[in-house]
Write a structure and sequence with these properties.
Blueprint lengths: L21 E2 L4 E2 L2 H7 L16 H38 L2 H8 L5 H4 L2 H13 L9 H9 L7 H9 L5 H19 L32 H12 L5 H12 L8 H11 L13 H7 L10 H18 L6 H11 L16 E5 L4 H10 L1 E5 L9 H6 L7 E6 L2 E8 L4 E3 L2 E19 L4 H8 L18 E3 L2 H14 L7 H7 L9 H4 L4 E6 L5 H14 L3 H5 L3 H13 L3 E5 L6 H4 L1 E3 L2 E3 L4 E3 L2 E3 L1 H9 L9 E6 L6 H5 L2 H4 L14 E2 L6 E2 L5 E8 L10 H6 L1 E4 L4 H7 L3 E4 L2 E4 H15 L21 H19 L4 H7 L13 E5 L2 H4 L12 E5 L7 H5 L3
Parallel strand pairs: 3-5, 10-19, 10-20, 11-16, 16-19
Antiparallel strand pairs: 1-2, 3-9, 4-8, 5-6, 6-8, 7-8, 12-15, 13-14, 17-18, 21-22, 23-24
Helix pairs in contact: 5-8, 5-9, 5-11, 7-8, 9-10, 10-13, 12-14, 18-19, 21-23, 29-30
Length: about 850
Amino acid sequence: MKQPAYARGFIPHVDVEFDWIIDPKVDKILTLEDLSKNMPGQIWSPIKPSIDIKEEFLDRLERLWAGYVGTKNNEKNVENKDAAEETDKAGKDNKIYDLLKKAEDIDPNKCDGSYELVRETVNSYSHLRNLSLVDFADLDLIYLMSVIQNDKLRNQKLINGSNLPPEEKTRLTSIFNKVWEKARNKDYKIIAKPPVSIGMFGTGFYTFNKTISDKDMPIKIIRTLVEILPMTDFSQIYRVIKNNLNEKINGIGVASFSSLAHCLKPTFFPIMNANEGFGSVFSSLGIEIGPLRTIGDYADACKKIIDYRDRNFSFKNFKVMDDMARKIGKSEKYNVTLERGVKRKTFIVFQGDGKIGFQTEYAGRYIEAPYKDVGGGARHHWNRLKEVSKGDIVFHAANQRIVAVSIAEGKQYQNPNDPSKRRVNCDYTIISQPVELSKYRDKIISICMDQEHAPFNKNGMGNQGYLFYIRKKLAQIFAEDILKNNPGIKAEYLKEIIDDEDTPDGENMDNQEIALNTILYGPPGTGKTYHTKKYAVAICLEKNLSDVKGWEDNEVEEFYKDLEEENRIVFTTFHQSYGYEDFIEGIKPESDTATNQVSYPVKPGVFKRFCEVAAQEDNKDRRFVFVIDEINRGNVSKIFGELITLIEPNKRLGAEEETKVELPYSKEKFCVPSNVYILGTMNTADRSIALLDTALRRRFDFVEMMPESQVLEDIGANEIVSNAQRLDIVKMLDTINNRIEVLYDREHTIGHAFFTGLIGEKATLENLRIIFENRVVPLLQEYFYENYEKIQIVLGDNQKEKDEFKFILEKEIRAKEIFKGNIDDSNIPEKKYSINKEAFKHIESYISII
């Protein structure tokens, strides 16, 4: 009798091919390792050709699967119904919900050309047979299709430099040209940089950084984008992302990926840019998205947001929410706190272990410091206490151990029982297994060795004092130790420290804030006055300056004008006749037409009036900016008078050394409010900082603004093409400035702002002629006191063979033909010079400068 197959060592089986297998309890895709570990009796292998399954078995499998999914869905629906209703109820009671409820959907193809460009670019890569060949140039190409651009040449270079096959490069170029023409014809809703541009997002960075990125990062990202391109079901898309990108990938974060993914699938991927107000939109709607450490976390957040949107709103394109986020992120119209995107500062406080120290402050849930030392001077740790803000993290040390961690609940306030002290309320969490600082002695010394006001000395011991900033690296070490040795500790914010690459270093936090008294200085044309608007808006709206610099010019201008109308920004220009009476107060004649009498009342000056408004009770929590253009052109000692002392931060209203003076005319007591920022500009070509009034120099922070030719590259003002010849404006400007630095100094270089208008249709030889003839050459004449030989060298005329391309022409002086008599001892120059206006009309004149 023949043995059955299984008796001979064979087991009846069926080969089945799965795209993926999911653990429904945690909604996680199981890996081969997971499957082999949990079901060792089953053979698991990567996908391979499978055996056909009989139709009746397929039907049975489908029915079983449908029944299983239905059961699970019902269970989940029952579990989630109440939670969803609670979330919806929480979100409906606010103005943002009402606005989104009324919002009309946005057609991506009519909104901006970047939707089509990203989609078609990914489509091109779907035709690439081997995606393992792609690199950073390819990811740059896809990403920069969504970044604001007003220069066709940039994207053409990116397409040509990619690893796409020639036919796809040709196809993509054709599509880009068509989209560009649509933008030129204003067929899109968004034109970020008139007169013509494509893209919705600021640059953030120009290209992906190869040095800090995983080398296979572009392959992972592009492969994922290609895979999800044809999908129309988010559950499928979700699984792909969780399978491909669930772990942290160096070199690309959620913000950048969300921009890419949104342009590819605008109805599935919300834009999540932490520099804007996206967190405020979701938190105000009651949507808890949690920390976004990985792209997998982002996919989880997308599920929640899509579910909420589909239950409550009619729009599909998440650009609607992005527009709302931008309004919130850049204005104060909605009283919504942006919890995410806030840069937490990290501190360490040495409290001791006695009744007066840690135990007392822990019991009261605060940290506290006097603002005077025994000698009456301001204490360093009190200055640090003023810098603590809501959400900042404090590590509490006692006897060389970190015994607790807390999160600040607000800003400092006066101790009601002791006005000489200030407090900050903190939400303490006790650490059952304290961090032994001695364990990290070497790391502490290494990290703190060059830190000003370091919390630890050169031996790794706590320094004399109370409250100190700690650097990001050290905060991460402490956070990792606490989480590792204290499982279950309720301090989720510690995870943010570990994962957040943007947490600012302690001693650099002072630089995050714009100083109360700041002067922007540099050569002409470096955008000093232009940047005062961005500084002023950032100050008034309490935004990071780097964020505001990324806004569009028209947006900054709009906020600036609004703040001017609210009298929160005032602009004035100093000049030689400007005086104390104009600035502070003075006696001004006033005639009465009815009696023909003249009186001489005391009139407040522009700065005094401004300070009086800022000091009003309703305004004490708002910031005000007083802008002084050309501050070095006025007589500062004469204009400020005794107030030059009052503008110091520690002498202002409410400061620890508050100082008031009696004004000479009105006899009123006057003090400069602490919420008034003074922002000045000065042109170094007029006067060097070294020659500034010493009193002024000591009381202001100075921010240098030098020519930045890269700006011209970034905005597309980097070339002029004429007569089939191309002029590289960036190289030309750099060449001119290098020569000026050698022949004169760096403070008299030529600013890039002279050339920023050479964009798109304005990038013409005629406009360049106007700039050179009316601005650049006159400036050089002023710099070199009409020493035309040096001007010739700067403009490269000394190396040009043809006179027609020389800006400055020289001619030998024949003295005897001009003068009569004996002129041998008259020291008459040998040459005379003239400006060749015809040279300004030839592109060769500018090309040969380089």
